Amino acid sequence: MIYLRSFQFSNLMSSNPNIYPDYVFRHLAGEVLLFDRITVLYGNNGSGKSSLLNIIANKLEITGAEKLISYGDIGYAQRFLDLSSYRLGNDEKENEIRHLPKESRYMKSEDILYEIKKIQQSAVLREGLLFEKRSKGMSKEQAGAYEASYDFKKKLENIRFSQEKYSNGETSMQFFEEHLRPGNLYLLDEPETSLAPANQIKLAEQINELARYFDSQFIIATHSPFVLGTLNAKIYNLDSSPLQTTEWYQLENVQFFYRFFEKYKSFFG
């Protein structure tokens, strides 16, 4: 399923080098991204791939979006959003989709790291569980009663047990297993965070299955060669100008890994 068909960058960019996000995407003014079931935004540090995910999340007003703030003048960020545009996809009957699935969300690497910290730190864990309930509409009084309940204490015990049982990487995998569901649009920022190569591949394979068989769509920012090589994805190289798609094995980061192991291939004979 293609929930989000395209995104077009603002065609009006400030020449001021201090204006965010204009200075990051000046070379992409007016460009259009066309999305597939799985689309990857690749780029080295500073390419703007994470910023772009957050911009799209803000434009779509989905869960996880972080407010854009321009240095000096917040109006520039809002102008960028206002002048950017998107098109939704079509349903099975080729009718244009009017609304994104309500559980669609933007997941940042910080979300995953916070989940790990939440498990590792009791105070943060307690605060995180209560914040989760409050964000879903529970009143302050109800949250207080919930904190004193048996169910709350039992959940704390279960998560503390997970702290002893799971590594950071295993906790990350558990996070994705709990939050990635069929029939949604997901924007994932560097999902490989804390994952060993084997788990990076495992996660990428799960994403392939969700996209192919379970009506999920993914837009992913990554430069992991293991994720890039496993995903059945359209890949945009944000380091290139003009913007273009490319094969995973042509990307600079993948080529770097190739040259490194080629240099030492005699050790693997």
UniProtKB/TrEMBL annotation:
<dbReference type="Pfam" id="PF13175">
    <property type="entry name" value="AAA_15"/>
</dbReference>
<feature type="domain" description="AAA+ ATPase">
    <location>
        <begin position="35"/>
        <end position="241"/>
    </location>
</feature>
<dbReference type="InterPro" id="IPR027417">
    <property type="entry name" value="P-loop_NTPase"/>
</dbReference>
<protein>
    <submittedName>
        <fullName>ATPase AAA</fullName>
    </submittedName>
</protein>
<dbReference type="GO" id="GO:0016887">
    <property type="term" value="F:ATP hydrolysis activity"/>
</dbReference>
<dbReference type="GO" id="GO:0005524">
    <property type="term" value="F:ATP binding"/>
</dbReference>
<dbReference type="InterPro" id="IPR041685">
    <property type="entry name" value="AAA_GajA/Old/RecF-like"/>
</dbReference>
<dbReference type="InterPro" id="IPR003593">
    <property type="entry name" value="AAA+_ATPase"/>
</dbReference>
<dbReference type="InterPro" id="IPR051396">
    <property type="entry name" value="Bact_Antivir_Def_Nuclease"/>
</dbReference>
